[in-house]
Amino acid sequence: MENISQAFKQATLSVMEPANKIIILSHKNPDGDAVGSGLALYHFLKELGKDVCFIVPNQLPVYLNWMPGYEDVLVYEKQKETGRELLKNADVLIMVDFNHRSRLSEAGDYVIPLKTPKFLIDHHPHPEAIAEHIYSRTSASSTAEMVYEFIAGIFGTQYVSQTVATCLFVGIMTDTGSFSYNSSEPLTFEIVAALLKKGIDKDYITDKVYNNFSEHRLRLMGHAMNQRMVVFPEYQAAYLYLTRSDMETFQFEAGDSEGFVNYPLSIRGIVFSAIFIEKDDHTKCSFRSKGDFPANLVAKEHFGGGGHINAAGGESKTTLAETIKKFESILPTYKSYLHE
Q1: Residue 309 CB: number of other CB atoms within 10 A?
Q2: For 232-264, b where at least 16 C-beta lie within 10 A, e where not — what string?
Q3: pLDDT digit string (tens) for 46-93?
Q4: DSSP code, position 60
Q5: Contact between residue 121 and residue 92 where contact means Cβ atoms under 8 Å apart
């Protein structure tokens, strides 16, 4: 594909073709794009005859447990010794859907110092120099879109099997909210068309992604919208929050809060939304916005994170209550952005 430089193509072929043991890595709290991109590469490299392992820092979303290869993914926090042994002996590391070492959590402290050749494929802005070979394209809808370019553009479309195509479609669909944002380039739909031609079952995939949750998750969503949503019409902003008690009451599973942060944006006039989730030692923060309001600027300036202009994340080392208080206090600072 024309978006990939000749230097990156040549490095890929010269480094990866003789390699046998290849590790794929993605970010903590992996979403559909992280899982879809990683599993697509996993199946592609297996087809090439490579010895491959896909590693994520922590638990995979339960709602994606139907995806081919899901059970093969190694969760680093559960199998640290095995993970380190595999990483130490790898010939190549491929990192997808993140571009800062902090997104690897504890695993980053072990991964980044390794002298193993590293490749990075990612669509988030401002990549950190954590790999020798970087394919970064912020205009891409998703990392899965870029992984398609990587496989088809360097090795050939014959390597995009139906299984690979299924994984890539999950990544593209989930990272664009079913093509409702981050999906204005014709190339995105050209790639989706190519995936459909591989025989993927779009309706089956959509059903599995969006209708594969527990009853408890739906009740948690209702609780969040009714009891845990705060709206600031004067700032065209809103936020949700979940306590540890909430998650215990509603038998929370990894991935259950996926998408909650988007719902306040359906309120007339709201252009900025956040969700704060209480963890044992920190508060997880996610931000979404419409138009030109920079959600990533809020994440970067106040919550040690970053991301896209309309979708970003971070975390706070303070309590949930203190994090919320801070968020409320900074809203006036962004009032000029919040009024269209």
Answers
A1: 16
A2: eeebbbbbbbbeeebbeebebbbbbbbbbbbbb
A3: 999 999 999 999 999 999 999 999 999 999 999 999 999 999 999 999
A4: P
A5: no
Closest to 165 (Cα-Cα) out of 127, 131, 204, 110: 204
Name the nearest CA neighbour of 22 among 65, 64, 51: 51
- CB neighbours of 321 closer than 8 A, spacing ≥ 6? none
- pLDDT above 70 covers a percentage of the chain that reads 99
Length of the chain: 340
Closest CA to 23 of 74, 66, 64, 65: 74
Place 2 in a pLDDT band, splitting at 50, 70 and 90.
confident
pLDDT tens, 280-329? 999 999 999 999 999 999 999 999 988 889 999 999 999 999 999 999 99
For each of the domains in the chain, give its residue range(s) and CATH number, in order of start.
Answer: 6-210 (3.90.1640.10), 215-338 (3.10.310.30)
The CA-based dihedral angle spanning residues 34, 209, 247, 259, taken in that order and rounded to the nearest 10 degrees:
70
Confidence bin at 339 (pLDDT 50/70/90): low
- Beta carbons within 10 angstroms of residue 93's beta carbon: 21
